[in-house]
Amino acid sequence: MSSAILPLMIAGVVLYALMRRVDVYDAFVEGAAEGLPVLYKILPFLAAMLIAIGALRDSGLIDRLTALLTPACGAAGLQAELLPLLLLRPFSGSAAMAQLAELFARFGPDSDIGMRASVLMGSSETIFYEVALYFGAVGVKKTRFAVPVALASMAAGVVTAVLLT
What contacts 41, CB < 8 A, 6 or more positions away? Predict the structure, then answer.
């Protein structure tokens, strides 16, 4: 049933528009055309973030940080295998999902690591990706407290995830 929700919502919107005598196709094309300048505006920020994430992963920095932080993880009750996930998550959702899939393949989704990784994914966000993309798209140069507050809330989510799992 849940796989039918999106098609039913789309059909509902189309039916509502038809009842109001709106040309659905023209409205869709007009909306898509209005979205192109927005895409053009955010594309450089998206490209810069993707390049930075690739450099971060390919440089070996994640592995070095993991090795450096492993002793602190043991003291905090967090498995060191979860560190790459936590280090990538603020930068890229897709890189974090790839790391999650790797953890599932190595340890299984029902293992302690798999369950904790799942909760960590759900209780964290792609902070730097969103700040670069959304703040950049609207031209905000000074993010003020957005990044520190987002990092603090992610830290609270990580601590809560560790305590709950």
Answer: 137
- Chain-centre distance for alpha carbon 13: 28
C-alpha–C-alpha distance, residues 163 and 119, integer Å:
11
Q: Which residue has the tokens 């990784």?
A: 117
| pTM of the predicted model as reported, rounded to 2 decimal places | 0.69
CA angle, residues 142, 143, 146, in degrees to nearest 5:
165
Residue recorded with tokens 């059909």: 11
Query: Each residue of 8-40: pLDDT tens digit?
Result: 998 998 899 899 998 988 988 998 888 888 778
Identity (one letter) of the amino acid at 27? A
Residue 86: how many other CB atoms lie within 10 Å: 23
Three-state secondary structure readout of the chain:
CHHHHHHHHHHHHHHHHHHCCCCHHHHHHHHHHHHHHHHHHHHHHHHHHHHHHHHHHHCCHHHHHHHHHHHHHHHHCCCHHHHHHHHHCCCCHHHHHHHHHHHHHHHCCCCHHHHHHHHHHHCCCCHHHHHHHHHHHCCCCCCCCHHHHHHHHHHHHHHHHHHHC
